[in-house]
Amino acid sequence: MLDAVLASAGWDRARAYRGDLAKTEARLRSGKPPVTGMAAAPGAFKYYSYLNIAWDDMELGRYAAARRQLRQAAAHGANPLMVSWVAREIPAR
Question: What is the domain count for the chain?
């Protein structure tokens, strides 16, 4: 039923993930973390951005790209548990 409601509203899963991917990549290129009003650990902006990009790539079926982004997230200090959560969702191929 939810799929029918979303479809009737014109929501498209792939378009949503591509839009989020473009927004996150642009923010990462700018080097400016979003203003959230919350304190974050140094480097969190970068590693979280890479985790986000990895998830979007995974949802779009771009598994090799998702794995590359996970390596970037780890290199920028992402918690290994967070990296493993995303990695477990990527089909082994």
Answer: 1
